[in-house]
Design brief:
Elements (H helix, E strand, L loop, with lengths): L3 E6 L4 E8 L3 H20 L2 H17 L1 H12 L3 H24 L6 E3 L13 E7 L3 E4 L13 H9 L3 E4 L5 H17 L7 E4 L2 H9 L5 E5 L2 H12 L7 E4 L6 E3 L7 H12 L12 E5 L4 H10 L4 E2 L3 H15 L5 E4 L10 E2 L2 E6 H5 L2 H4 L7 E7 L2 H10 L3 E7 L7 H11 E6 L38 E7 L12
Parallel strand pairs: 5-6, 5-8, 6-7, 8-9, 10-11, 10-17, 11-16, 15-16, 17-18
Antiparallel strand pairs: 1-2, 3-4, 4-19, 12-14, 13-15
Helix pairs in contact: 2-4, 2-6, 3-4, 3-6, 4-5, 9-10, 14-15
């Protein structure tokens, strides 16, 4: 430890504000000790009390929405209006989890009264519920500084489950992380609760130490494949391995049937709008578009990309990795490359949008390259001549968060595509786009590896709370010793 974080303005290409030192070893120990000390009290609070705290955090963030959105924009260049809307989504998540906690159905209560019937029918009194796993480490994301940040869905779900939380702040928005952390700590003080219920640490070393610390019982991460894979391996290699819920990136393929290709310009415009949303910095970015040859879609999409202006990326590290991965795609033999207008001298940290086009055979020959997420405004368009070529590509793609099919219900290839994409995606979309993740109980924001490290769980929606609980069955337990929900 010993480094620091400083805010970076992507539009100006300049650092600003104070240096925030990385969490020192002594401070790290104090934060984890406080979390461990507060864990029992927090898990023992009533569901109503936990729900009230979550709603109060949402109220505090809503009251400061304008200032927080402006600070987030200064650090990320994601747009004040967009970020203000993200605050609203974040507070909605907090209240949705609060409602789930109030309801109590997430506990999965099962009660089997004792039976004196002969075996195997007979059994003792058995009652099962879910209990908090223990202190949770949350790794904030860069691209959603509110919804997947310090007070985002992972934090809300863990707190709602009855787990104390230690968040590793993301260096792309250090001042914002501190401000949100102050709001959460302020709410805990107002409710007379231990400050250790929520902690915040900074720096690479603190992030690595957090996942291997014996006081941490589970971890949630949203970020790059390299960082997430490294942390998941550390979690798995502990003397006492812990669950690691990592979202590591996804190419989110979109397949267009020959019939749907007739929608032409509208389809192309919608694709480019989805691709360039927040300058391509979405985990649900539609990186791969698969279209029929001769449909004219490649030409129309290319024209739209060529006229789209440059825009800034979140941080220098994101910028550098984007350029390396764009070069990787552009270097595939046979690739046809289109770029938008180049940034001028004032726009030193801006990047041009781009499109790389391949045939199916070229794509299949370089599956590893096309499946490497290019986090930013570059799309890959693949053209097929026959339906079986599109299906062959679908069969070769790895796990993803979302996959989409544009077609008509009676398309010969539609059912086959839906079936194949169901194998690899956590969400399959019909005649729509992967960007835009509804925060609803039926949502599943997850997917097979490498999209996530645990295919069973979602990080969005009310079901997210189940990641931070574990089942316990009580056998022949006196009523007075049972948890309240089992009495």
């Amino acid at each position: 430890m010993g480094g620091s974080s400083r805010s970076f303005n992507p539009r100006a290409g300049q650092y600003f504000g104070p240096d925030l030192p990385d969490t020192a070893p002594q401070e790290f120990e104090q934060t984890l000790d406080a979390a461990a000390a507060a864990a029992s009290e927090w898990r023992s609070t009533t569901r109503r009390d936990r729900a009230d705290v979550l709603r109060a955090i949402g109220t505090a963030l809503d009251a400061d929405r304008g200032r927080l959105a402006q600070l987030a924009d200064d650090e990320t260049a994601l747009g004040v209006d967009s970020l203000a809307g993200e605050v609203g989504r974040t507070t909605f998540q907090l209240r949705q989890i609060a409602d789930q906690v109030d309801d109590g159905s997430y506990l999965g209560v099962r009660i089997d009264l004792a039976s004196t019937e002969p075996l195997p029918t007979g059994h003792p009194d058995l009652r099962r519920t879910r209990v908090p796993v223990g202190p949770v480490a949350v790794y904030a994301a860069s691209n959603f500084p509110f919804a997947f940040g310090v007070a985002g869905g992972d934090t809300a779900a863990a707190l709602g489950a009855g787990c104390v939380v230690v968040v590793k702040a993301h260096p792309a928005h250090p001042q914002l992380s501190e401000e949100i952390g102050r709001h959460i700590s302020g709410v805990l003080r107002e409710h007379g609760l231990p400050i250790g219920i929520f902690g915040l640490v900074r720096g690479f070393e603190a992030g690595r130490d957090l996942v291997v610390d014996h006081r941490i019982a589970a971890a949630a991460f949203t970020g790059s494949f390299a960082a997430g894979r490294a942390l998941s391996q550390l979690a798995a290699n502990r003397a006492n391995p812990i669950p690691f819920y990592g979202e590591l990136g996804s190419v989110n393929p979109v397949f267009v049937s020959p019939k749907a290709a007739g929608r032409g310009g509208a389809l192309a415009s919608e694709y480019v709008a989805s691709l360039l949303l927040r300058n391509g910095q979405f985990c649900t970015n539609p990186s791969i578009l698969v279209v029929p040859s001769g449909s004219g879609l490649r030409e129309t999409v290319s024209e739209l990309i060529a006229s789209s202006p440059p825009a800034p990326l979140l941080a220098p590290g994101v910028h550098d990795l984007f350029e390396k991965r764009r070069a990787l795609l552009a270097g595939i033999p046979g690739a046809r490359v289109v770029s938008g207008p180049q940034p001028d001298a004032v726009q030193s940290w801006f990047v041009s949008p781009g499109l790389v086009s391949l045939s199916v055979s070229e794509a299949l020959a370089h599956v590893d390259a096309i499946e490497t997420e290019c986090f930013g405004p570059v799309g890959l368009l693949v053209e097929y001549d026959a339906a079986d070529e599109a299906l062959a590509l679908a069969d070769r793609l790895h796990g993803c968060l979302v996959a989409c099919v544009h077609g008509d219900e009676d398309d010969e290839v539609a059912a086959a595509l839906v079936e194949r994409l169901t194998r690899i995606a956590g969400r399959v979309v019909w005649n729509g786009w992967p960007t835009g993740v509804a925060v609803t109980p039926a949502q599943h924001h997850g997917g097979p590896f490498p999209a996530t490290t645990d295919v069973q769980h979602t990080s969005v929606g009310a079901e997210a709370i189940t990641r931070f609980l574990r089942p316990v069955a009580y056998q022949a337990m006196p009523t007075s010793l049972l948890p309240l929900e089992l009495r």
